Amino acid sequence: MFKKENLYNLLLFLASTIALLIILEILLRFFPVSEGLNFQDVTKTNPVMRAQPSNIVTQSRHWNFYKVQNLKINNLGFRNDFDYSTNSKKKVISIVGDSYVEASQLSFDNTFYGKLSKSFGENADVLTFGFSGAPLSQYLIWAKYAVDNFKVDELTFVIVENDFTESMYERTGRFFAGYHYFKPCNNGQYCLILIERKSNFLTSILKQSVLVSYLYRNLLVMEYVRLFKYKYFEKAQSESGNNLKNSIGTNDVSFDLKTERLAIDVFLNKLKELEISEKKISFIVDGRFYEKDIDKTSLFYLSRNYFIDEAEKKGYRVLDLKEVFRTDYRKNRKRFEFELDYHWNERAHSLIHKELVKFYKAARIF
């Protein structure tokens, strides 16, 4: 039988646990815990991923609240200190990307696009469209939104290492609700499919908890859960022949390169469907190679070169950051990412701004 003493101990444990959670919830409210961007529902009738508009959101990283920033979400639900107007008489530069465009580690003034806004302020509106986790396939949705709603004079995409494979529905190791992915459809073609994002009662309740936000966003507990599942379950299935090569990181460069080239081809082909001239489309391609001898067999090196070659063949302009970063690093021996975060730091954004000013002027946008 269940003794009264055991029942008492169980109730004491539960009460202590609840009390501890309440105390942590209260204490964390005095710290800059990273908040969610409070995204809107994304459905077939509302397919564009955006945050709730006109808001200020606190962002930080890790257990010690590294790189605290207060981000402004503008009138249309994107990270930008300026509201967007569809009736602007200025030229319009639209920049599309993922967390490198969201740049939540930096103040707006220290981002390359914040600096561009200051450089071209009287002549151009610099619009940004990008959130963390977005793959190359999702860029097409934001690009279409920009072209359909603004008189875009320059459409610039930020291309980084994880953009390619993550676009493929059958290969990505994880999905982000609200984003679009490439999936095979009729006649060997690829279609954009949406992973819908819909709020529910449970998530609306959990969003109110600072403790949950700290565990989820600062400590990234769900990422550790995902890695644990992959290491002990999904990887074992893959090795046994089930779910073969169905997640990112196969250690087979030739297989991964084939997948990444497919993603690039699909993206560039679908880009032609936008109602904008290829002369108005450009790409910024990351290239942080610090070593004397670049590993020319690495997946990113091979994929980025393929992307650059194919983009230029189709008439698009490319700003390759490889030599920009290497030249500066040889001279100053300073890196271009944060100590605890691989995203571009202030130095990288400053260099990119300077190169973009020359890049845009050379293209006679102004």
Distance between the termini: 84 Å
Q: H/E order of the elements?
A: HEEEHHEHEEEHHHHEHEHEEH
Largest sheet: 5 strands, parallel
Number of helical stretches of at least 4 residues:
11
- As residue ranges, the low-confidence spans are 236-249
CATH topology: Rossmann fold
Structural class: alpha/beta
Tell me the name of the CATH class: Alpha Beta
Please give the CATH architecture.
Answer: 3-Layer(aba) Sandwich
Domain module count: 1
What is the helix content? 40-55%
- What is the number of beta strands? 11
Oligomeric category? single chain
Superfamily at the CATH H level?
Answer: SGNH hydrolase
Give the percentage of residues in beta strands.
Answer: 15-25%
Form type: globular
> What is the CA-atom radius of gyration, in angstroms?
23 Å
Summarize the structure.
It is built from 11 helices and 11 strands. It is α/β, with parallel strands linked by helices and 366 residues long.
Keywords, separated by commas or semicolons:
40% helix, 366 residues, alpha/beta, single chain, two-stranded antiparallel sheet
Q: Please, could you describe this protein's structure?
A:
About 4% of the residues have low confidence. The chain is an alpha/beta fold and 366 residues long. It contains eleven helices and eleven strands. A hairpin with a 2-residue loop joins strand 10 and strand 11. Helix 3 crosses helix 11 and helix 8 runs parallel beside helix 9. The strands form four sheets. The protein has a five-stranded parallel β-sheet with strand order 4-3-5-8-9, with helices on both faces. The protein has a single domain, classed as SGNH hydrolase (Rossmann fold, 3-Layer(aba) Sandwich), CATH 3.40.50.1110. The longest helix has 25 residues.
